[in-house]
């Protein structure tokens, strides 16, 4: 679950001057009227500093007679809340709670955008999460949850309580509604409890029956009836469903509010497939070797002019298998 909070985790304005020379400990000058603990807390969040490293730094700062907590949990104001880990089919689930996640950062009226996704937490080199995410619940198991209703029920119960009773923080009453639900194609299939992307009726926006063309499921028709929230909840097209979806209990338009995933469908899906066909496809669709070299040269030539705001630099076409979604989007919108 991701909140559109105005909570600002801004860069730490360094108010501690560290002078490191030789083997001496840092010489710290504290400027007047500075909340060192708040600045240090923001610095830890910004740079993802480990608890062990923070505790070591706290020990050094305390030796300089600064009013710094010795333990990182006290510094970060980690709430002392115990959560029950529940055993479910295919794994275990812990529900952290909407209220527990939102109260510390509440500022004004919230329109919640909810996300459901997976992460390989046991893999050392998994991608870091760069944005501030409020986890409402966490499932852990060797496979996907066996029952989507069992998986989603704690969130439903929690949301109904918060939406009906609101939240009172600092004598202010906050009301909630669900704005959108964002997830990739696989997670969307699970939440909607419908057939997967290889099925004839898997399109979540229209009722077109797909057809196999060259070993691929395609949807060539354009003028076809669209799905609606009413037709989805009424299960008008039975071939599409595997069972009831927990999203039917929410006051949302399932067709419009459960969004398409731009990254997987367009960038990693269509754009990457096109480039792979041009680079590694058969002669009737692939580029000539000379053309590939010229395009790659032009891509490399623009690298010095790419602003630092772009997190990934362009790469040659032959490296298409290693292009990430950011680079594919860059190709689509700019240097492509």
TrEMBL record:
PANTHER family reported for this sequence: PROTEIN, PUTATIVE-RELATED (PTHR33053), TRANSPOSASE DOMAIN-CONTAINING PROTEIN (PTHR33053:SF25)
Superkingdom of this protein's organism: Eukaryota
Protein name: Uncharacterized protein
Taxonomic placement: Eukaryota, Metazoa, Ecdysozoa, Arthropoda, Hexapoda
């Amino acid at each position: 679950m991701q909140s559109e909070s105005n909570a600002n985790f801004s860069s730490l304005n360094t108010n501690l001057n560290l002078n490191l020379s030789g083997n001496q400990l840092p010489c710290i000058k504290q400027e007047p009227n500075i909340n060192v603990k708040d600045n240090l807390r923001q610095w830890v969040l910004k740079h993802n500093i480990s608890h062990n490293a923070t505790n070591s730094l706290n020990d050094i700062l305390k030796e300089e007679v600064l009013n710094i907590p010795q333990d990182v949990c006290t510094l970060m104001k980690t709430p002392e809340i115990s959560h029950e880990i529940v055993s479910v089919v295919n794994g275990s689930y812990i529900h952290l709670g909407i209220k527990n996640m939102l109260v510390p950062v509440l500022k004004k009226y919230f329109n919640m955008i909810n996300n459901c996704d997976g992460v390989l937490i046991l893999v050392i080199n998994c991608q870091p999460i760069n944005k501030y995410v409020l986890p409402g619940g966490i499932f852990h198991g060797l496979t996907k949850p066996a029952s989507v209703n069992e998986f989603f029920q704690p969130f439903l119960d929690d949301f109904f309580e918060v939406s009906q009773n609101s939240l009172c923080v600092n004598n202010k009453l906050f009301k909630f509604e669900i704005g959108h639900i964002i997830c990739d194609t696989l997670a969307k299939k699970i939440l909607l409890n419908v057939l997967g992307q290889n099925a004839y009726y898997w399109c979540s926006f229209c009722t077109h029956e797909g057809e196999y063309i060259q070993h691929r499921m395609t949807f060539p028709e354009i003028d076809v009836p669209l799905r609606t929230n009413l037709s989805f909840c009424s299960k008008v097209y039975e071939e599409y469903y595997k069972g009831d979806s927990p999203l039917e209990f929410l006051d949302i338009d399932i067709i419009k509010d459960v969004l398409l995933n731009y990254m997987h469908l367009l960038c990693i899906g269509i754009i990457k497939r096109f480039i792979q066909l041009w680079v590694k496809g058969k002669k009737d669709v692939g580029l000539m070797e000379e053309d590939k070299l010229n395009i790659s040269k032009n891509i490399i030539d623009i690298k010095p002019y790419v602003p630092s705001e772009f997190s990934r630099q362009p790469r040659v076409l032959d490296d298409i298998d290693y292009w990430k979604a950011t680079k594919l989007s860059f190709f689509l919108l700019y240097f492509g």
